[in-house]
């Protein structure tokens, strides 16, 4: 694993799930002061510098993080398991969105629908390609098509994170088209 990948995984873990592991405190919107982040990481054995953090933010194909306009703070765009208010506003989704998962999860999804589990939202993609890239990380791919337009008309709220990931509280089975 490259140093950039290690840094990205470290930032994901700290900014999305466990800031307290290094003594970092996020504000209510999930922002961390970059200097504080580097200091807390250093005290816990991880060396970070501003240039490398900025490189991870700028070069990540998934655009998981954003740096504030003043360049002083960083946060994850979505995927939190800790309480944060990303300030997302509901938006109308396209008629169909996609969710890539592993085939081993299909029976549970047929029974329960798509649930956020430890996260705040279910993550959906506007393209099959992006959903496939996500799904294949977890095993043999099963592509789910979500009738998001119908969901929205039924009262479900959709959001889009800063990096283009579609978010929804849950997806009931009735709105899922399963693979043949």
UniProtKB/TrEMBL annotation:
It comes from the Bacteria. It is an enzyme of class 2 (transferase). InterPro entries: Ptrans_KptA/Tpt1, RNA_2'-PTrans_C, RNA_2'-PTrans_KptA, RNA_2'-PTrans_N. The keyword RNA-binding does not apply. Keywords: NAD, Transferase. Its EC number is 2.7.1.-. Signal peptide: none annotated. Pfam families: PTS_2-RNA. Removes the 2'-phosphate from RNA via an intermediate in which the phosphate is ADP-ribosylated by NAD followed by a presumed transesterification to release the RNA and generate ADP-ribose 1''-2''-cyclic phosphate (APPR>P). May function as an ADP-ribosylase. Belongs to the KptA/TPT1 family. This is Probable RNA 2'-phosphotransferase.
């Amino acid at each position: 694993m490259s140093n950039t990948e290690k840094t990205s995984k470290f930032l994901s873990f700290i900014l999305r799930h466990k800031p307290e592991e290094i003594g970092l405190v996020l504000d209510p919107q999930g922002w961390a002061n970059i200097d504080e982040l580097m200091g807390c990481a250093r005290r816990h054995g991880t060396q970070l510098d501003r240039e490398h953090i900025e490189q991870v933010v700028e070069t990540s194909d998934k655009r998981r993080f954003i740096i504030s306009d003043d360049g002083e703070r960083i946060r994850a765009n979505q995927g939190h398991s800790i309480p944060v208010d990303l300030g997302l506003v509901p938006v109308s989704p396209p008629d169909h969105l996609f969710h890539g998962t592993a085939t081993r999860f299909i029976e549970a999804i047929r029974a329960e629908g798509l649930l956020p589990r430890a996260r705040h939202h279910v993550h959906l993609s506007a393209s099959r390609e992006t959903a496939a890239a996500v799904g294949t990380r977890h095993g043999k791919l099963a592509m789910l098509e979500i009738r998001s337009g119908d969901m929205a008309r039924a009262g479900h709220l959709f959001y889009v994170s800063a990096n283009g990931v579609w978010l929804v509280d849950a997806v009931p089975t009735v709105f899922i088209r399963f693979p043949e």
